[in-house]
Description:
- This protein is an alpha/beta fold and 292 residues long.
- The protein has a single domain (2-289), classed as Alpha/Beta hydrolase fold, catalytic domain (Rossmann fold, 3-Layer(aba) Sandwich).
- It contains eight helices and twelve strands.
- The chain has helices spanning 73-87, 100-110, 135-150, 168-178, 185-192, 221-229, 251-254, 277-289; strands spanning 2-7, 10-17, 23-28, 49-54, 92-97, 115-121, 129-130, 196-199, 202-205, 219-220, 234-240, 260-265.
- The strands form three sheets. An eight-stranded mixed β-sheet has the order 1-2-4-3-5-6-11-12, sandwiched between helices.
- α1 crosses α2 and α4 (168-178) crosses α5.
- The two termini are 32 Å apart.
Amino acid sequence: MELVLDIEGFKVNAKTWGDKTGRPLLGIHGWLDNANTFDKIAPLLSEDIYLVAPDLAGHGFSDHRSMNGSYYLWDYAVDILNVVNILKWKNFSILAHSMGTGIAAIIAAAMPESVDRLIFIDGLGAPFVINEGDVVSNFRKSIKQLKMAKKTKLFGFSSTNSSQFDTKDEAIKDRMKSNISSISYDASAYLIERSLYQTSNGYRWRYDPRIALPECYKMTERQAQLFIEKISCEILVILGKEGLFADGMFSERLKRFKKAVIHWVKGGHHLHLEETYIETSTLINQFLQTEF
């Protein structure tokens, strides 16, 4: 079911599964993805779950930010809290993938009284961090790139009639090439259905190109770890053996979780959209049904 939420004039689209009287579960997708990322596991979740997965700002069917808007983890976290307020949820769990785990970590650390459980899929919090000594240079570089973007077609849609692809097949293959890790054709096909805008002579990406710009205010690795340390609820971490963390990246963060159950499963970064989706949904159901 499609849900359209109005946040002070800003439109947020979301997909929902289950009965709205069920246990609240908020889905947060990753960078360049959308709510379709949960299409394969959502139908397999327990019948008592009500999953609401919004398209983040600039992604999917949700609005793009204004000319002066920004796409930082902090901004997304505020958006998600606004969604929760509209839904009138007092307590809820979060199911997050990739960059979504960075948003979820911020919310869970800042609102421990509201978030009762976390589920991370191939993500360990803030995905993009910088060295403490690079904070100033990163800010300078980001500002320059933002100024350049405003002078070019990168700023918002260049033209709703300008196509990038003749067919969806071309878009799927382009999505496979642009992904930060390998992704299957079928998984890409799920995602592009909510990421394409149909023009008079083909298709173009629907997402705001500005989401690809570097953040001005990136966290340092220590800050990312601090948010993880402040999470007080139970956490299920599902990581792909061929995913982003297979080489030990951010391994120190695994030591910072207070109450984490960690599972390594077969699959890559989008394991929940690929062959491991049944195992993934089973792990999620078991975790949500377990009494701690």
